[in-house]
Amino acid sequence: MNKRSGLKGLSGFSDMRDVLAGRVRGMRHPPSRSTCTCTGLRTYAGAYLAQLGGADVISFTAGVGENAPEVRAGALATLGFAGVQVDAERNGERGRGIRIISTDASAVTVLVVPTNEELEIARQTLQVTGG
């Protein structure tokens, strides 16, 4: 359960890039690429939006969040009730730095925020070691 569940159990792969490329092995009726991931993200986002009574910003980070426009679009597809509107063209663009992928009319700003885990680890290491 700890080693072959989740994405690996559903698709046979542990890397979302393989799933997004449609490489799914050992399944008679594989889920369409990132269906399960998007459903899970929508479930959590909807629950948080309900608990918070809305949001000002939704951000996507790290490997999948930065590089998979289809996952971002799928994750936000049914959140229009909360004022989330994604600009398909902006969402599909590759870029550097923080970028807005929501429409100008969206009540919620949707961002793609690049991460740099190595830099953060180095900063925290310096802080802990007093360097």
UniProtKB/TrEMBL annotation:
User: What name appears for this protein in its UniProt entry?
Assistant: Acetate kinase
Q: Which UniProt keywords apply?
A: ATP-binding, Kinase, Nucleotide-binding, Transferase
Looking up SUPFAM superfamilies in the UniProt record yields: Actin-like ATPase domain
Gene3D superfamilies attached to this UniProt entry = 3.30.420.40
- What is an example of a Pfam family matching this protein? Acetate_kinase
Q: Which family does it belong to?
A: Belongs to the acetokinase family.
Under the heading InterPro entries, the entry gives:
Aliphatic_acid_kin_short-chain, ATPase_NBD
